[in-house]
Amino acid sequence: MNIFKEGKTLAVNVIKDVTGHWKTPGGKNQVPYKEILNLGLGGMGQQFVTTLTGYFGLSVGNTLIGSTIGITPMHIQYMSMIYTVLNIFFAIIRSRIVDNTRTRWGRFRPYIAVMGIPISVLAAVYIFLPVPTLPYTQKLYLTFFVTVSIAMISPMFTDTYSELQTVISSNSEERSKIIAINSIIYSMAPTLTGLFVPMLAARFGGYTNINTYRYVIVPVAVLGVGMNLFTAFGCKERIVASKNYTPRVRVIEGCLQIYRNKHWWLRTVSGWIGFAESACGVIFSWIFIYGTQDMTNYGLLNTVLGTASGIAMFSAPFLLKRLGNRRLLLVHNSLNIVFVTAMLFTYKTMYLFFIFNYLNTFVNALSLVYNNVMHAEVKDYQQYISGKRMDFMFGTAGLIGLPVTLSTGLVIPYVYELMGVTTNYDILFDPTIRNNFFMVLCLMSIAGAVTNLIPFFFYSLSVEKHRNIVKALEYRALFDDYADGCLSDERIVETMAGIEETYACLDAPAPDLAACKRAVRAASGKAERKAARKALKAARQLLVEKDAAVYLTDELTKFETPEMQMKLEFARPLAALQPEDLRTAPQSLLTDARALPASTKAEKRRRRYAVSQAKKRLRMAAAIQKAYPNGIEAPDESRLHAALAMPDDTREAYRARNRAIREAEKELELYHRTFKPYLDAKTLVREEAISRTLLPDMRARYRELTAAPKTAAAQA
User: Fold this and answer.
1) Residues 261/82, Cβ–Cβ less than 8 Å
2) How far is it, in rounded angstroms, from Cα 491 to Cα 498?
3) Which spans of this chain does the record mark as coiled coil (predicted)?
4) Distance separating alpha carbons of residues 257 and 385, to the nearest angstrom
5) Mean pLDDT computed over every residue of the chain
6) Backbone angles phi, psi at 577, to 5 degrees
7) Distance separating alpha carbons of residues 272 and 91, to the nearest angstrom
8) Which of 168, 352, 527, 571 has its CA 20 to 30 A from that of 92?
């Protein structure tokens, strides 16, 4: 009875929480439940659309392009390799467009609203054309054109949705909860398609018949385009930045800054060397398509399989809170190895194989949540070390691994053709060939899972470190708003509360872990042991928090470091000059810098910095003479803000607004690019002057703001 009573109480509390915070968030949360639902419904729409676009992926297991249209596995891989090279240019264009997007609707939502339409139209036109009956060369060229076009556009539809999840809240714990809830909602889409699409496909001749794609898959995608609008118009983006922050990211500069991010490298290398982990993903569907040929049973088991993802997504926030990102990832990959190994010995027994496939699907689905959380944290860390918010630029930076991707991409298609699977997949109807093939795919997946796991033993970005990184970013936003004269009381309270929390942790006495461990061993009763273990856990957590606080304290005290003092020494005389004084620079600047003493490490570091600054000064002088031969006129940044505020309710107004934005941006970019060393020096000097009084002033203002409600309550 107590279980039922507790369950009822929990359900009532959940209902009260949802209804009470349907339109306004509660506590430290930033996102109301209505917005979470909109995110999930849009996610369902994304899944419905990708049900269609997934069949245009250039992978050798593709039943539309491979077995239905009849393109050979090696030709599919060759097309994939060509696209991979072309994607260098596509990724640069996408990252430059998206990362520099500034609209009243945010950075990602405009693309979420629009880009699903051309993708679905292009795919539908291809499917309804008589492609299977065309001569092989013609359908090869047509397939290449359509698949590459869809692959070029799709990231601006799918990746913008994924990126929106990473900025829907700056609170890491709330963000993981939102991603988990969202995953549960949008996973209903693949559950529904997994149940009904195979059944409907059986009526149209199965997955090797073009009519299945025409009359089942395309209508599902059309529904998805409509549902996607819930996210486009019902969600917000909450990037931690100052009010007047204007994204200005250049491709080469952005990539070079990302290459300094060790956590990005670990995640990227893991993907490179773990390419074979997904090789066994086709086995479950192929058992039914080429083995039992029982599409009804396939649909039912596929629906049951979908529940594994739902359970995993529901469990993910609790597991993340208990284990953290890194430990959960290590557990997931370790279990992945165990379950795929079990699948290796059970693929001949369908239902036993299904059990291990279900368990493997469960642990793999955890990554849908923690990967998004980790991706968001890595981007926040990138903003912390570079000072610029980058999203799509990560994809462009990833192109450095193109040779690795091209090489490893040949492995699975080569295995397919080695096993006899070319244009005619009917060979898989032979149980001997099919079972041997399944064994090879399982072995490849085991090897991929092992190699994928290795880099994450070196991953160190914990929840506590990320929390202090966000606090540092909030402090920078407060700093900029204070300097720009647009600081709000809400920003002060939110930022200073985080800073005070960190300093309270630092000021707390360091716990004696050895004493806590002795207390656990010496405890006699159950209650005493429980209290001792709790104290030990709290002591360990406090030490972790103290260690992570450095990310915030380094930001607050950065002008006190010898390195920053050295930079200020060089910045002050440069910042004191007028723009016209920079038109010429004597060569003696570089000569004098190279003549500086270099006996100690500090002197070597100082001389190296002096030489780099002298070279920048000389390059800047040459750039000024080229860009401003008739005199220097600094652009007015208010022109850009005025252009952004222009109406766009008609086509003419929209074009006028875009034209004004481009003109203002062009002037600003030329000026900032040409005078970058000078502007950086002025910014550094200005920030140092502000930093002397900012924190004491903000602490005093924070106490006033937090004391006011208490005073009002006491008077009442």
Assistant:
1) no
2) 11
3) none
4) 8
5) 83
6) -80, 160
7) 18
8) 168
Q: Helix, strand, or coil here: 378?
A: helix
Distance CA 420, CA 618 (A): 64
pLDDT at 628 over 80: yes
The rounded distance, in Å, linking the Cα atoms of 107 and 161 is: 11
Res 172: pLDDT:
66
* Residue 312 phi, psi (nearest 5): -65, -40
- Alpha-carbon gap, residue 459 to 90, rounded angstroms: 30
Whether 239 and 228 have beta carbons less than 8 Å apart is answered as no
Could you tell me if 466 and 227 are in contact, meaning their C-beta atoms sit under 8 angstroms apart?
no
d(CA 176, CA 168): 11
Band the pLDDT of 711: cuts 50, 70, 90: low
Q: Is the dihedral of CA 553, 557, 562, 564 positive or negative?
A: positive
CATH code of the region 31-461: 1.20.1250.20
pLDDT above 60: residue 184: yes
Tell which residue, 445, 443, 436, has the closest CA to residue 276.
445
Residue (of 282, 313, 364) closest to 165 by Cα position: 313
Q: For residue 505, give both structure tokens.
A: 């942790």
Nearest to 399 by CA among 95, 647, 664, 168: 95
Question: 1 pLDDT exceeds 60?
Answer: no
pLDDT at residue 238, rounded to an integer: 78
To the nearest 10°, report the CA torsion of 208, 211, 215, 219.
50
Q: Is 561 helix (H, G, I), strand (E, B) or coil?
A: coil
438-453 average pLDDT score: 87
Residue 653, H or E segment:
helix 651-674
End-to-end CA separation in angstroms for the chain: 44
Interatomic CA distance for residues 63 and 290, integer angstroms? 12
Using DSSP's 3-state secondary structure scheme, residue 479 falls into helix
Please return the burial class of 666, using the count of CB atoms within 10 Å of its CB with bins 0-12, 13-18 and 19+.
exposed
- What are the respective helix, strand and coil percentages of the chain, to the nearest 5? 80, 0, 20
pLDDT (average), residues 615-630: 91
- pLDDT tens sequence across 496-543: 888 998 999 988 888 888 888 888 888 888 888 888 888 888 888 889
Segment 67-96 mean pLDDT: 81
Any idea where the domains of the chain sit in the sequence?
A: 1-27, 31-461, 484-556, 560-633+675-715
Dihedral over Cα of 385, 386, 391, 394: its sign: negative
- Specify the pLDDT at position 715: 56
- Give the separation between CA 58 and CA 81, rounded to whole angstroms: 9
Of 490, 394, 498, residue with least CA distance to 162: 394
- List C-alpha distances in Å: 138 to 141, 198, 424, 596: 5, 30, 19, 68
In this structure, which amino acid lies at residue 360?
N
**Number of residues that make up the chain:** 716
The answer to whether the beta carbons of residues 508 and 420 sit under 8 Å apart is: no
Q: Mean pLDDT over residues 572-580, rounded? A: 91
List the one residue out of 531, 611, 579 whose CA is nearest residue 679.
579
CA distances from 309 to 62, 189, 283, 302, 351 (A): 22, 12, 18, 11, 19
